[in-house]
């Protein structure tokens, strides 16, 4: 007997008594719903930390850096409750675009959702501020802002690529302050080190908060995006030939 995707099994005892219980698939259904509500991109819904391939990097130095980043992320998930109590997220940074920071950050989010059933949300910083701007005329700005300020685990991707302004700095400071005060976890990726953030956010308020809220993790200085795309295309061509 299956639950047909409802998460509940309806059973009947020999005496005719009917009752319902959770199906074994209920946990998986909840996890999938949490991943979908976290707005994880479709291409990344199944990625895991364990499947993060350090050998995709060409140079030994970058492979070692990737191996360390992978190990740190595994340990972070393992000891998440401790790091949450210490109010620490992670800051994945690399000077190169396409170094797979996004993939590892989303792998972290997926792992936390699966292991702790935590509510999370993924968004690029550019899209975050685009959403807020679009909400001005609709009068929903505070509702959207509250979403970013209150979700248990927020993954902010590509910090520093957005065009900055006084409004952006002020709004971003408000988001970080609220999350810091509520002891919520923030995971960030950027092409900038934490110290270099002051070159973009000149008030210095952003970098100081991020340094308090996150532990920096270096990623390889190697662009592997094109290499991964080529490997995927090669696999498809191989399938088409047979």
Give the N-to-C terminal Cα separation: 39 Å
For the residues shown, what is the average pLDDT? 88
Beta-strand residue fraction: 15-25%
**How many β-strand stretches?**
7
Order of helices and strands: EEHHHEHEHHEHEHHEH
Rg result: 21 Å
Strand order of the largest sheet: 4-5-6-3-7
How many structural domains can be distinguished in the coordinates?
2
CATH-level-4 superfamily name of the largest domain = P-loop containing nucleotide triphosphate hydrolases
The CATH first-level class of the largest domain comes to Alpha Beta
Question: What spatial form do the alpha-carbon principal axes imply?
Answer: globular
CATH overall fold name of the largest domain: Rossmann fold
Low-confidence stretches: none
Q: How is the main sheet built?
A: 5 strands, parallel
What is the correct CATH architecture of the largest domain?
3-Layer(aba) Sandwich
What is the SS-derived class? Answer: alpha/beta
- Binned, the helix content reads 40-55%
Q: Treating each run of at least 4 consecutive H or I residues as one helix, how many helices?
A: 10
């Amino acid at each position: 007997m299956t639950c047909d995707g409802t998460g509940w099994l309806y059973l009947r005892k020999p005496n005719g008594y009917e009752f319902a219980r959770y199906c074994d698939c209920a946990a998986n259904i909840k996890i999938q719903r949490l991943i979908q509500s976290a707005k994880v991109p479709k291409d990344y819904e199944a990625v895991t930390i364990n499947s993060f391939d350090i050998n995709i990097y060409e140079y030994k130095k970058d492979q070692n850096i990737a191996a360390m980043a992978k190990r740190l992320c595994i340990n972070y998930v393992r000891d998440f409750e401790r790091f949450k109590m210490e109010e620490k997220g992670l800051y994945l940074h690399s000077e190169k675009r396409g170094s797979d920071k996004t993939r590892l950050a989303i792998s972290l989010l997926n792992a936390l959702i699966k292991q702790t059933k935590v509510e999370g949300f993924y968004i690029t910083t550019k899209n975050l501020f685009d959403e807020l701007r679009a909400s001005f005329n609709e009068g929903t700005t505070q509702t959207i802002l509250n979403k970013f300020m209150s979700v248990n685990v927020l993954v902010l991707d590509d910090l520093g690529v957005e065009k900055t302004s006084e409004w952006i700095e002020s709004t971003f400071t408000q988001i970080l302050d609220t999350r810091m005060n509520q002891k919520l976890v923030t995971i960030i990726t950027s092409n900038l080190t934490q110290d270099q953030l002051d070159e973009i956010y000149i008030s210095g308020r952003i970098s100081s908060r991020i340094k308090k809220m996150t532990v920096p993790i270096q990623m390889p200085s190697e662009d592997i995006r094109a290499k991964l795309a080529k490997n995927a295309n090669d696999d498809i061509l191989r399938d088409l030939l047979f």
